[in-house]
Amino acid sequence: MARQLPGKDVVIIGFGWTGAIMAEQLTDAGLEVLALERGPWRDTPTHFATTFAQDELRFYWRHGMFQEASHDTVTFRNNEEQMALPMRRWGSFLPGNGVGGAGVHWNGQTFRFLPSDFVARSHNEERYGRLPEEMTVQDYGVTYDELEPHFDHFEKICGISGQAGNVNGERVEGGNPFEGMRSEHYPNPPMQMTFSQDRFMASARQLGLDPFPGPSANMSRAYTNPLGMQLAPCTYCGFCEKYGCGNYSKASPQTTIIPALMRRENFVLRTHSEVIAIEKSADGSRATGVRYVDSQGDEYVQPAEIVILAAYPLQNTRLLLLSGIGEPYDPQDGTGVVGKNYCYQVMSSVNVFYDDHYTNEFVGAGALGAVVDNYNGDNFDHSGLGFIGGGYIACWTTNTRPIESHPVPDGVPGWGSEWKQAVRENFLKTTAVGLHGASMAHRSNYLDLDPVYTDRWGRPLLRMTYDFTLNDRLLTAHITPFVEEIARGMGGREVKVNRRRGSYDSKPYQTTHNTGGTIMGESPSDSVTNRYCQSWDLPNLFITGAGLFPQNAGYNPTGTVGALAYWSANAIINTYLARPGPLVQS
Amino acid sequence: MNQKQCLSISAALAAWALTSFATEAQELASSQVAKGRYLTQAGDCMACHTDFDNDGIPYAGGRGLETPFGVIYTPNLTPDDETGLGRWSRDDFYRALNEGIGRSGEHLYPAFPYPYFTHMPREDTDAIYDYLRTLTPVRAEKPENDLPFPLSLRGSILGWKTLFFEDEELRRDPEQSEAWNRGRYLVDGPGHCGACHTGKNFLGADLEEEYLRGGTLEHWFAPNIRGGDNGGISDWSERDIVEFLGAGRAPHTAPMQRMGEVVAISTQNLERSDLSAIATYLKSLDDRPEPEREDIETERLEVGEAIYFDSCAACHDADLTGVPYFFAPLVSSNKVSAEDPTTVIRVILEGARAVATDAAPTPLSMPPFAWKLNDDQIADLVSFLRHRSNRPAGSVSASQVSEIRNYLIEHQGGER
């Protein structure tokens, strides 16, 4: 029997980036906020002190900060013909666990999506004609211009280091010429580039492209954010992705928000508290709170006036399905919305090997890189290409960590003494240029509940049905040669091209950029939330995260995830609280 | 003050008014209580009179204070009749702060800093008393002190007081500015800064000639906080001092451990003008010239520098200049150059955490190195740091490190 707890104004499910943002904004507005996190507490001095944070064995190979697959995983298949099987070890993507979520172990590459990314269907159809029927691409319902102040605020919270390209419509030399208008410069100057980026930029310029320093949540200098949180200069140790930063140099919920938030009397966090369902009123018109289980195995009902679903996108989708909220997506007839438009990303890369130059890629940072955006979004003419969208090309030096990473040229065996010798010869003399490509929504890629496998509470696991689409294949086939061209211009001895071939494989690591499943949009018939990230079904339920993206852009998602959270919080505080109810009439 | 606190205070005021003389009730105007609350914060009374380790109720006492002579437990300051200040009169309270004599005439251990509080005028101790009366009474017996004979006999204190204690209110120095006088009052009176920062004789009394030149207690060295020429904070500006005490961050260092408590509980709540006054006063205190730089073997310097580069330079920078406001610039650190190297050794062994304040909530920390560096390595490292300091100080030995390591193992469950 679940114990009934006293009510709160707001309950937040999940305490990563967006949970922390929502809690900070809503406590600031005077509300009593409770956040429930199923993982443990984590803070910088205790959990990622510099003397042990850089531990590949513990944090990467033994998955120190990732969701425990023995407690909860997803089942995966490429298509409906196959039987989905549980992923018993994370590979392709690494969902986070614990306070800060995946925001602790991200790299810090912090982009704003392009203005056209938010209107992907209307923009592309206007320019290139009707999209194929199986492409379920949609507009967000919110525009870049509406989100701009929120992008700006998130960048100030994070202390993003970067070079603006467009401030109030004025073109700024050295920045991205394709970016949307920004109201202000980045709060910090770009990171220090290394040999590899210098070569990349020179080669790109030679080809008439417009390289710029990658926007980075790693600090290029000491910075204090609007909440008084201090971020220290990055030491370029290169342990960002998969690791917590012990130097206070990477923006994470721990370094930018949580310590300030924890001081507020109207905020409470309960860790080791896993939400198992969102509770609804008898008439199904509103959320009444959540049901959760603590570390003792005891079950509680926590009532709240507002429920915010702020877990990882895969988890958000699953909780809606398990709670019977919204109609599940049916790929056969395209009806239903929950689980719809699951998207990922599509990458390719080219390794460059030098004879006489040390690239020393062990000196790195999560977001130390140079980027070219000429083939991203709709920055180039797609007429006759058979695909929409694109991706950025970049040379990041995020660290060749010694256990994880040993790039060798083509023709070297995968093991044995010859391989070892090649690793020894090339380890300090190599770099890579990558394509980070968009994933356009497709009818056959989606999330639903698995009919066979269950978790430790007996609840169905989430089932992922996903494969690369024709759009993905044409996109990489078109852009990878430009990647290769830039790489060849970087003056190495040889290059090795890693093309995108075959079906999506859930084993090798690619990115943790899972999107969709709880998409936002303009009408309840094709989306889970309205433009304010408010559930169409339950007006006191708000959803955050990349699950809102109707399709994935060619960028890393966190900048847009942060901006959408601030946008939604702003709507709750300034509109919803005065008149609780739907913010958009359906 | 939040609404809850306001309500509890006014309820307590009402109860008090019923049981006391009308004249006293009159003085319990909220301005008097507010003044008392401010002085209570300035005196950092909550820090010693709260058993933080056991989630004790603020001001209910029971915290064990580790003195060189044994552990002394603090009493309950809430107005509980049996265990607190319930039956104490204003006169009783004044006598305790001014003369170090308790309600039943017993002599109080000077762990209670009445040698400083004696400088406070009667109206200030009355205000503190009036504020403490507004607390919710809490029944809390204090544990027995853990002191050896004959210190366990309160009579022994009388001898100490005869030798070292003078009941004396601070007189204004007409030669100095208002700010200087206010600063000296806060430092020497309620703030009792000398309790930590002034050197002590073997019986724990302040040595006048060591006034604010730094002192060791509980295996920490509280640094020299004199300014002027050659003082431990001679390269701090007044603004640095105000930021350190008010926000808990300064270009040079951040408050941690006991000083962190002082900033969190006491000084971050003080008026900026009072913090400026403290800065004015401290900056006016000159100090003796530095001793000559001592020679140190090249080999030790090289080893120390190599360890520094591997383990410290990422935060404190290759040239020891650190990141002002974040990671202490070690070239100018008064902890590094202190005559007594206890603090710098201890911080390397067990790490340190800057206090989080409302203005600076980041828990900036340094990790411990006890598990990673042995006594010789730490001795070489500290000797290197002291040699490179703006105020060069002598080298330290492995046995000095070993002594502190052993203390931490015994008392704090530290790493071997």
Automatic annotation (TrEMBL), chain A:
Residues 443-565 form the Glucose-methanol-choline oxidoreductase C-terminal domain. Residues 231-344 form the Glucose-methanol-choline oxidoreductase N-terminal domain. Residues 503-524 are annotated as: Disordered. Residues 508-517 have a biased composition (Polar residues). InterPro entries: FAD/NAD-bd_sf (IPR036188), GMC_OxRdtase_N (IPR000172), GMC_OxRtase_C (IPR007867). Keywords: FAD, Flavoprotein, Oxidoreductase, Plasmid. SUPFAM superfamilies: FAD-linked reductases, C-terminal domain, FAD/NAD(P)-binding domain. Pfam families: GMC_oxred_C, GMC_oxred_N. Belongs to the GMC oxidoreductase family. This is GMC family oxidoreductase. It comes from Peteryoungia desertarenae. The lineage of its organism: Bacteria, Pseudomonadati, Pseudomonadota, Alphaproteobacteria, Hyphomicrobiales.
Automatic annotation (TrEMBL), chain B:
Residues 1-22 form the signal peptide. It holds the Pfam family Cytochrom_C. Keywords: Cell membrane, Heme, Iron, Membrane, Metal-binding, Plasmid, Repeat, Signal. InterPro entries: Cyt_c-like_dom (IPR009056), Cyt_c-like_dom_sf (IPR036909), Cytochrome_c-type_DH (IPR051459), Membr-bd_ADH_cyt_c (IPR014353). It is found in: Cell membrane. Its main location: membrane. Residues 31-136, 178-286, 299-389 form the Cytochrome c domain. The keyword Cytoplasm does not apply. The keyword Cell membrane applies. PANTHER family: ALCOHOL DEHYDROGENASE CYTOCHROME C SUBUNIT (PTHR35008:SF8), BLL4482 PROTEIN-RELATED (PTHR35008). This is Cytochrome c. The lineage of its organism: Bacteria, Pseudomonadati, Pseudomonadota, Alphaproteobacteria, Hyphomicrobiales.
